[in-house]
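Subject: Re: docking follow-up (guanosine-5'-triphosphate)

Dear J.,

Thanks for your patience while I sorted out the input files. As discussed at Tuesday's group meeting, I've set up the holo structure prediction with guanosine-5'-triphosphate included as the bound ligand rather than trying to dock it afterwards. The sequence and the ligand SMILES I used are pasted below, so you can double-check that they match what you have on your end before we go further.
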Amino acid sequence: MREASCCNKKIGSSVTKAGFVAVLGRPNAGKSTLLNALLGEKLALVSHKANATRKRMHLILMEGETQIIFVDTPGIHKQEKLLNQYMLKEAMQALSDCDFLLFLAPITDKISNYQEFLQLAQGKKHILLLTKTDQVSKEVLFEAMAKYEKFKDSYEALIPISIKDSSSLKRVVEVLAKLIPENPYYYDPEILSPNTTKEIAKEIIREAVFENLSDEIPYESDVQITLYKEKPDVHYIKATIIVHKESQKGMVIGKGGTTLKRVGKEARINIEKFVRQKVFLELFVKVVPSWSKEKESLKKMGYNFED
Ligand SMILES: Nc1nc2c(ncn2[C@@H]2O[C@H](COP(=O)(O)OP(=O)(O)OP(=O)(O)O)[C@@H](O)[C@H]2O)c(=O)[nH]1
Ligand SMILES: [Mg+2]
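The structure tokens for the complex came back this morning:
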């Protein structure tokens, strides 16, 4: 993941700092939400449904002369399905590749989740973030903090955060920036993510599927971008939503095509916000039985176990 090393820049008299930070925690802990808030841009997929993030995603924050490369990961959880095994692999890979870890634990979670993480982390430096503090009273917050403080020798810092409290998010960046070592920048400091526009468009369409469809569909579907053409004033995108079964195809399309239209409109608006250009998006739906259960079909969808 360090192949993108770009420039050993000296700004004024000071040397640059840079480091990779893996963002870990169980599904739905608030990882992608935190990163979008820190970057001030909607790059990572967020959903009230768990297991939204499937692949590692690099998001870059410049804090003065410090480049923090966050690696958003799928939530850590055990499951039988091959796609879920891939997701766990992605999280574990980030854990071992990165210099530091942010571990997110929703404030109401059992402390045993953090103990399990400590086993996985094997002494790696991390900051423990207690998330969604807006959902509990001050008393509950202090009680939880006191329990976690018993582990103070394990973490570098313990910070309660809420997406609704921007000062708590600022504190995360300040503490983290101090921990990042002197290094040349790994990426051009002008960019927000080395992931391509095509990959981000895919995530935005997946998010619209997550938000507009219920039951098993978000988990049993994926999106393939079949055409991405950038013209000076418009981006042309063709994408196919892949599902397991005919019945799911019917649900994605909806009566008279209304659901697919809604998904397409929502995704188009969000891609337009991201690329700051007009977007022409055409969506199709295709049945590929057991795409998430076989290594070969997962590979075709961009989930490669050898990566
Ligand atoms: N009330 C409250 N809700 C939050 C906060 N942070 C995140 N959420 C909500 O929690 C849900 C899950 O957020 P995500 O950011 O998708 O969680 P994630 O950890 O990336 O989840 P996976 O990608 O599935 O592993 C979303 O509905 C968010 O809006 C917070 O500080 N307060
Ligand atoms: Mg996520």
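A couple of observations from a first look. The domain at 10-179 is CATH 3.40.50.300 (Rossmann fold). Residues 258-275 form the longest helix (18 residues).

Let me know if you'd like me to rerun anything.

Best regards,
T.
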